[in-house]
C-alpha cells in the first residue's frame, strides 16, 4: 500500500511537471500574435494624376496633381515621332509638381504631335519615408496608372498626347529649360559595357542581381527610369539580332 501511494505521488509530480512547458508555449504563441497585430500595415493607394499642359510660344510646361506621397521621385519624358526626346526629374511636394519648360535648344518646339510620359523609378531608389508608404516594390500602389514589372514591381506610367501649333495657352516664365537628349544606342552601349565589367563578360552573370543593378546605373546616368533603360536594352538587342 505504501508503494502504491508513493507511486501515485511520483506520477502526479511527473504529470504536473510535463504540463508546464505547454503553458509556456501557449504564452509565447499569444505574445507572437500580439506582436503581429502591432505591425502597421499601410493601405493601398489608388494612384491618380491630373495633368495640365501649358504651351507658351512653342515651349511646354506640365503641372500635375497626384495622391502619390510627398518626396516621390517622378520622371517626365517628352517625345515626338521625329526623334525629339527631353526629360525632367522632379519630386512630389504638397501633392503636386511642375516641370520644364521644355524647348528645342531654348527655341520653340516644332509643330506636331508630342507625347508626355510620366513614370516613377523602382521603389528601391525612393526615400525611406516614401518606401514606407508605398511598400516593398510599390506593392501598395494600385489602379489604372500602375504597371507591374517582375523585376521592379509596381510603377506609375502615365501617357498623354497633345499638339503643338494648333493649340495655345499661357504659362508662367521659367528660366530653367530642359533639353536633355540621348540615343537608344548610347544607352545600350553603356549598359553592355557595364554588363561586361560586372559579370566578367557574362561568366559571373546572375540575372536577379545584375539586371536591376545595370538598369539603375543606366537610369541615373541618362535621367530615365530603370524600367525604360531595361526596355531600351531589350529593344536594341532584338533589333541587332534581326527580330
Describe it:
The protein is of the alpha+beta class. The protein has 3 domains: 39 residues; 120 residues, Immunoglobulin-like, CATH 2.60.40; 57 residues. Helix content is 37%, strand content 26%. It is built from 5 helices and 10 strands, in the order H-E-E-E-E-E-E-E-H-E-E-E-H-H-H. It has a 5-stranded antiparallel β-sheet, with no helix packed on it. A 3-stranded antiparallel β-sheet has the order 2-3-6, with no helix packed on it. A two-stranded parallel sheet has the order 1-8. A hairpin with a 4-residue loop joins strand 4 and strand 5. Helix 3 packs across helix 5 and helix 4 crosses helix 5. The N terminus is likely disordered.
Notable traits:
alpha+beta, Immunoglobulin-like, 5 helices, disordered N terminus, three-stranded antiparallel β-sheet, single chain, 243 residues
What is the secondary structure topology, with strand pairs?
Blueprint: H1 2-38, E1 45-46, E2 49-56, E3 59-66, E4 73-80, E5 85-91, E6 96-98, E7 112-119, H2 128-134, E8 141-142, E9 146-149, E10 153-164, H3 184-199, H4 207-222, H5 226-240
Parallel strand pairs: 1-8
Antiparallel strand pairs: 2-3, 3-6, 4-5, 4-7, 7-10, 9-10
Helix pairs in contact: 3-4, 3-5, 4-5
Class by helix and strand content? alpha+beta
Q: Mean pLDDT across all residues, rounded?
A: 81
By CATH, the superfamily of the largest domain comes out as Immunoglobulins
Strand content: 25-35%
End-to-end Cα distance, whole Å, is: 95 Å
Q: What is the subunit organization of this protein?
A: single chain
Helix content: 25-40%
Indicate the low-confidence ranges by residue numbers: 1-7, 18-23, 167-179
CATH fold category name of the largest domain: Immunoglobulin-like
Number of helical elements: 5
CATH architecture of the largest domain: Sandwich
CATH class of the largest domain: Mainly Beta
Return the domain count.
3
Amino acid at each position: 500500500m505504501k508503494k502504491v501511494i508513493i507511486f501515485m505521488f511520483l506520477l502526479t509530480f511527473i504529470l504536473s511537471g510535463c504540463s508546464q512547458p505547454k503553458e509556456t508555449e501557449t504564452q509565447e504563441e499569444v505574445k507572437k500574435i500580439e506582436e503581429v497585430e502591432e505591425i502597421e500595415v499601410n493601405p493601398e493607394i489608388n494612384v491618380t494624376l491630373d495633368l495640365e499642359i501649358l504651351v507658351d510660344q512653342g515651349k511646354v510646361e506640365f503641372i500635375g496633381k497626384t495622391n502619390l506621397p510627398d518626396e516621390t521621385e517622378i520622371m517626365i519624358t517628352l517625345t515626338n515621332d521625329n526623334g525629339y526626346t527631353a526629360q525632367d526629374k522632379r519630386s512630389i511636394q504638397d501633392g503636386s509638381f511642375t516641370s520644364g519648360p521644355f524647348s528645342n535648344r531654348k527655341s520653340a518646339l516644332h509643330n506636331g504631335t508630342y507625347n508626355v510620359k510620366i513614370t516613377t523609378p523602382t521603389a528601391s531608389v525612393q526615400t525611406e519615408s516614401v518606401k514606407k508608404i508605398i511598400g516593398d516594390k510599390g506593392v501598395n500602389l494600385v489602379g489604372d496608372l500602375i504597371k507591374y514589372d517582375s523585376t521592379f514591381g509596381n510603377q506609375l506610367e502615365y501617357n498623354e498626347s497633345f499638339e503643338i501649333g494648333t493649340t495655345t495657352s499661357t504659362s508662367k516664365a521659367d528660366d530653367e529649360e530642359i533639353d536633355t537628349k540621348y540615343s537608344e544606342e548610347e544607352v545600350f552601349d553603356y549598359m553592355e559595357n557595364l554588363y561586361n565589367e560586372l559579370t566578367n563578360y557574362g561568366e559571373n552573370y546572375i540575372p536577379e542581381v545584375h539586371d536591376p543593378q545595370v538598369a539603375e546605373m543606366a537610369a541615373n546616368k541618362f535621367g530615365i527610369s530603370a524600367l525604360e533603360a531595361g526596355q531600351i536594352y531589350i529593344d536594341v538587342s532584338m533589333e541587332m539580332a534581326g527580330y
